[in-house]
Amino acid sequence: MGFSLSKSMDANLTKQQEFMLHNSRLQLERQILMQNQMRERQMAMQVAWSRELLKYFGSFFAVATLGLTAGAIKQKRPGMLAPIIPLGFIFAYQMDSAYGTLVCRMKEEAESIMASEQHRLDLPHGTPTFDTVEKARRARSGFVSLLEK
């Protein structure tokens, strides 16, 4: 009788462990999906911000270009057109950021760095572990929990 009860408890324990493993896997998958959705939303906000900034900077660039060109023609001083060059580079960057392939090129470069220059990504003192986080928490907290006594 004891053997059958023990066998039943072992089977029950195995089922419970499988259920817990399945549950933790499901929770991890949900967290990964949620973090990815948050990342996508943040990227969309950055692209939208770039597009909005481009509208304002494009207007400024157009007015400045027209004004500098009119001033250079009126005063017969071609040197007045010099500020258009750096402003043009900034405008081109903003255009690439808002509507071009800048994000794709940045992604490819990041993948290349991750593949061939892994040492650049290492954190000082290595990756935090539970023990290092717990040690820092204890050092900051003057309160000692009942479990630590």
From TrEMBL:
Q: Which InterPro entries match?
A: Plg-R(KT)
Keyword Membrane appears in the UniProt entry: yes
Q: Which Pfam families match?
A: DUF2368
Key words of the record:
Membrane, Transmembrane, Transmembrane helix
> A GO biological process this protein is involved in?
positive regulation of plasminogen activation
This protein's GO cellular component annotations are: plasma membrane
Q: Where are the transmembrane segments?
A: 53-73
Q: Is Membrane among this UniProt entry's keywords?
A: yes
Q: What is this protein called?
A: Plasminogen receptor, C-terminal lysine transmembrane protein
Species of origin? Kryptolebias marmoratus (Mangrove killifish)
